[in-house]
Amino acid sequence: MNALGLIFSNIHDNNVPELTMNRTVAAIPFGGRYRLIDFPLSAMVNSGITHVGVITKRNYRSLMDHVGSGKDWDLARRNGGFVLLPPFGEKDSTSLYGTRLEALKTVLGFIMRCNEKYILLSDSNAVYSVDYTPMFREHEISGADITMLYCKKQSADISGTNNVVLKLDKDDNVKEILTDPIMKGTVNLYGNIILMKRDLLVSIVSDAVAHGQRHFIKDMIAGLLGDLKIKGYRHDGYFEEISSLTRFYKVNLGLLDRKVMQKLFGGAEIYTKVKDSAPTVYGENAVVKNSLISDGCVIEGEVYNSVLYRGVKVGRGTVIRDSVIMKNTFTGENVTLNCVVTDKNVVVKDKRVLSGADTHPFYIAKDTIV
């Protein structure tokens, strides 16, 4: 596919401040073994895009460690491949970019030096499996200048900020673009994935910057509705945004439903960094029901309806229910965890009782000892 992929790694950091204190949104661990960056990267690679840039801002050390040269996505190439685009501030500026448009301004030189005909822009705050090939085909057949991917979503399932809703006609032409409107019922939620010709992006970004615009969608794209043909492309497959800690918790636990697992992982492969871990060890008195257990764990207690990442240790007499336990968390003996999210390298000492609720999980920060 003759397209350049461009992924924003930091745009939604403020929606999940608990999980982005030491990492970008793109580097948030998910589902026991993945990071959020894996989903847009895998979708692009599976669609034949072999030149992908990732725009960073801050806290991107864990992202660099995870993606590396892009080898695990077959992007370690002499020509094209994976390119990490570190933050770049103007000489007369004291801060880094704050919006997509400002981010694009800092990497315009990179985009202009590329040779691909099209460019596909994507955020990294969602869990999905998308084949972009039909989207490209629709874009070319329809003669659209810009195509925006959207999903049908219930307003009650939408949280966070900077949510964009599309108003479409019967032919999926975009007639109105609304940012954080009052929502009721089913809406056309923009998936923060947009396709256009590379030269067109360079032209409209340069023009928007010259006119002092700051926002990519709200100012620039919405302002072009009367001048360009902008189409919507509906994605009916699995698509869930990580727009808050509660959404992170619920989307992780959603993987315990076999139908959800099939929707997300039953099609094209989701690639991630390969780690050779030992199999999980289950003690004589271990009990595990309806849970997702990753490699390298040691289970001597009880685990119900939970997701355990790599290297988790569950002590004797410990009971974990409805929780998301990240990498290398250690629980002592006779611990009770209910509706808890632990970040990496957490230690929970003997006989601790910690509980949240399914609408407000109890979060324990990285490297904390309780």
Structure description:
This protein is an alpha/beta fold. The chain is 21% helix and 29% strand. The protein has helices at residues 38-46, 61-67, 100-106, 108-113, 133-142, 198-210, 216-223, 245-254, 258-265, and strands at 3-8, 29-30, 34-35, 51-55, 81-85, 118-123, 126-128, 146-154, 164-168, 174-179, 186-197, 230-234, 239-241, 281-282, 287-289, 292-293, 298-299, 302-304, 307-308, 313-314, 319-321, 324-325, 330-331, 336-338, 340-342, 347-348, 353-355, 362-364. The strands form seven sheets. Strands 5-4-1-6-11-8-12 form a seven-stranded mixed beta sheet. The protein has a five-stranded parallel beta sheet with strand order 14-17-20-23-26, with no helix packed on it. Helix 3 crosses helix 6 (198-210). The chain is elongated and about 65 Å long. The model has no long low-confidence stretch (mean pLDDT 92).
